[in-house]
């Protein structure tokens, strides 16, 4: 059973990652080893499970038939793992959480560090990507999002509101014309998202403020924040990020104040896993507490 599950674990990793290299990275084994394991499984199964192409590995019809059976075995193994874990009283194993890079850079690190400190056998991986995560392909075990998904077998829990303000560095403000109204923004350098790479309408801050031109643009919140911090221009920044730098000043507050929300998104099947439920509760509580703490310092 152990050997069979190990082969199915490799199969699931390739199916979800779409290739040998990313699957090997997730499994912490050499891609060549992953390839040999897939070949062996296909020989045992009597049919090719993947169609190989330069674009990656895609499931064949046989692979599609095997997928739900492999997922069922995975869930059974998770349940068995939980039984042993509950006996020890602490969380263990590996859990991967995806998040937009604002949350992933300025909130989640300290939240997850505290959880691991209390659960030393636990491994937490944070995937910071400026896009929506595909939980069906298990890109992550759960994800933080900025809006509620409308499709897929998912469970969604609102975690917390958070706030954003227009801001600039004190150095920038000292060397540029004073800003007392929205009209004064004309002529100032603006920092924001690359317009065609805004992956969620909730992130289209500058359009909401009537700004049409972005002089310094990136799909990364961290890049934008560093531009603002280093005097590159004006940008909408998370209040929870402000304490991580010195010399950043909010502009036109409270007249310009944006409120958004974080949601914890999970695959519906994971509701049966107490381990995931416990971790999700700790993450949600931790994010709420950390946002409140950081915004109070902004």
UniProtKB/TrEMBL annotation:
InterPro entries found in the cross-reference section: LTTR, LysR_HTH_N, LysR_subst-bd, WH-like_DNA-bd_sf, WH_DNA-bd_sf
Asked if the record carries the keyword Transcription, the reply is: yes
Provide any one GO MF term from the record. Answer: DNA-binding transcription factor activity
Annotated HTH lysR-type domain ranges read 1-60
Which Gene3D superfamilies has this protein been placed in?
Answer: 3.40.190.290, Winged helix-like DNA-binding domain superfamily/Winged helix DNA-binding domain (1.10.10.10)
What does the sequence similarity comment in the record state about its family? Belongs to the LysR transcriptional regulatory family.
This protein's name: DNA-binding transcriptional LysR family regulator
Tell me which species this is from: Donghicola tyrosinivorans
């Amino acid at each position: 059973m152990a050997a069979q599950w190990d082969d199915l674990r490799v199969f699931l990793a390739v199916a979800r990652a779409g290739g040998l290299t990313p699957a090997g990275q997730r499994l912490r084994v050499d891609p060549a080893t992953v390839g040999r394991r897939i070949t062996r499984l296909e020989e045992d199964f009597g049919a090719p499970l993947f169609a190989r192409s330069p674009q990656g590995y895609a499931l064949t019809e046989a692979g599609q038939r095997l997928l739900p059976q492999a997922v069922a075995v995975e869930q059974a193994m998770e349940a068995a793992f939980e039984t042993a874990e509950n006996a020890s009283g602490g969380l263990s194993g590996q859990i991967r959480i995806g998040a937009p890079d604002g949350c992933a850079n300025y909130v989640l690190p300290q939240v997850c560090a505290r959880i691991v400190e209390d659960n030393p056998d636990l491994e937490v991986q944070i995937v910071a990507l400026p896009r929506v995560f595909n939980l069906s392909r298990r890109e992550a075990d759960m994800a933080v999002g900025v809006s509620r998904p409308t499709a897929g077998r998912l469970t969604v829990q609102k975690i917390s509101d958070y706030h954003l303000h227009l801001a600039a560095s004190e150095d920038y403000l000292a060397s540029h014309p004073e800003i007392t109204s929205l009209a004064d923004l004309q002529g100032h350098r603006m920092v924001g998202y690359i317009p065609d790479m805004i992956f969620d309408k909730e992130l289209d801050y500058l359009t909401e403020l009537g700004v049409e031109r972005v002089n310094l643009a990136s799909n990364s919140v961290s890049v934008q924040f560093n531009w603002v911090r280093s005097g590159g221009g004006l940008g909408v920044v998370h209040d929870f990020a402000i304490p991580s730098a010195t010399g950043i000043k909010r502009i036109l507050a409270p007249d310009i104040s944006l409120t958004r929300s974080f949601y914890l998104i999970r695959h519906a099947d994971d509701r049966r896993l107490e381990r995931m439920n416990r971790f999700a509760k700790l993450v949600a509580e931790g994010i709420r507490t950390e946002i409140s703490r950081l915004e109070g310092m902004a």
